[in-house]
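We both want to read discrete structure tokens more fluently, so let's practise on a single case. Would you write everything just below, so we can both look at the same thing?
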Amino acid sequence: MRKLISTGSPFEKTAGYSRAVVQGEWCFVSGTTGYDYATITMPDSVEAQTRNCLATIAKALKDGGFDMTDVVRAHYYITDQAHVDLVFPILGETFGDIRPAATMIVCQLNKPEMKIEIEVTALKRT
């Protein structure tokens, strides 16, 4: 069974995507940037953006019947190599015991205010 998860973000409708898609025992969470979706504002710091990403991801997983402990794969996209040492401790707070397979890439993102984007895949634990 396929279930689509939305944050209610206007970007999802405009660009034609879901925040997450649940397919059977899997949940695929789209690349998530640091917006506060309650206000559609973007904090300035990469640390605050990272925390927002993780909160949005956690909610999408919960809405799909999953938990952060179900995450098996994570992709991190950052816009500046200097952000690595700033975001590693925050990521470690969330994923330190879960330890999904992960990749971090330095690249440009869609808007100049975006400093990080996180995408995860979760598999329901049996």
DSSP finds three helices and six strands in the chain. The CA atoms of residues 58 and 115 lie 19 Å apart. Residues 2-123 form a domain with the 60s Ribosomal Protein L30; Chain: A; fold (CATH 3.30.1330.40).
